[in-house]
Design a protein that fits this description.
The protein has 141 residues and is mainly alpha-helical. The chain has one domain. 74% of the residues lie in helices and 9% in strands. It is elongated, with a radius of gyration of 17 Å.
Amino acid sequence: MKKIITKPQYFFSFLALIMFIIGFIYKENSIELAFYGGIIDLDIWILNLFSALFFILIAINYASLTITQKQAKKGLTITHILIQIIAIVPLIYFTITSNSSKTYEEITIMNSILLLAFVVFILATLIHLINFVTSLVTKKD
């Protein structure tokens, strides 16, 4: 666990790889979202590629801190990793279960969960940006 906190770029690179693999395995499937009385199919392959790219960018940010010999804030890093895991678990779950048919009520519940996960994802992103910027501007010990 200490290695993940001191070098979170490895964790986020691994997370990007996981998202890519899951997206590749389920690339023919889609997640159905209820939207104003209709249903929109969200392509899993595109969604997981976007997620993988996002995690690669986060890994690059953390790696750049290592290259510049700056240390990320431990508390913010732990918070970011935990919140990011909480945000990504529903997406992975709904990706894996995407090939089963769902009723409109199930889709509506899934929408609520995914919307909450998206809000948590945005919160994790803000924590990452705060961590990254504060780590860059603080003086090296």
